[in-house]
Design goal:
- By secondary structure, the chain is an alpha/beta fold.
- About 45% of the residues lie in helices and about 20% in strands.
- The protein has one domain: Cytidine Deaminase, domain 2 (3-Layer(aba) Sandwich).
- Helix 1 runs parallel beside helix 6, helix 3 crosses helix 5 and helix 4 packs parallel to helix 6.
- InterPro entries: CMP_dCMP_dom, Cytidine_deaminase-like.
- GO terms for molecular function: guanosine deaminase activity.
């Protein structure tokens, strides 16, 4: 599967998060071309503001597989990870990050300063994953706009 095909799944997870009463973010992990874990944002259903899709996914995968190093893993996410989730990609030595909408896209929708959270975190970090931006960007933005544009 290519980046667009895998991102379609992340975007579907973001839509499912909204259907389940959460915010529109979905993520999955790929190892050796195979999807090994998926999840969606669960901050409301778990009553936990740290249960962003990316952080929850990384935490659950690492606990299940008794690993702390994701150097052979790619994270696909419907939106560029926030500062907290970007930090998790640093501490786990994630190999590659692929996202749809950027945090600047989300911030524009929210009327906040346009800041690239992952770029700021990676700028002075001991680890920087390879980053592929804006895969199916218009679709990712549409999902965010349909949710946050009405709030």
């Amino acid at each position: 599967m290519n980046d667009e095909q895998i991102m379609t799944i992340a975007l579907d997870l973001a839509r499912r998060a909204v259907e389940n009463g959460n915010e529109p973010f979905g993520a999955l992990l790929v190892k050796n071309g195979e999807i090994v874990a998926t999840t969606e944002n669960k901050i409301h259903s778990h009553s936990n503001p740290t249960h962003h899709a990316e952080l929850l996914l990384i935490s659950e995968y690492c606990m299940k597989h008794h690993v702390m190093d994701l150097a052979d893993i790619t994270l696909y996410t419907s939106c560029e990870p926030c500062f907290m989730c970007s930090g998790a990609t640093v501490w786990t030595s994630l190999n590659r990050l692929v996202y749809s909408a950027g945090s600047c896209d989300l911030n524009r929708i929210l009327g906040e300063p346009e800041v690239s959270s992952s770029e700021i975190v990676y700028l002075n970090s001991h680890h920087q994953p390879e980053v592929t931006k804006n895969i199916l960007n218009a679709e990712g933005i549409e999902i965010l706009q349909s949710y946050f544009g009405t709030k």
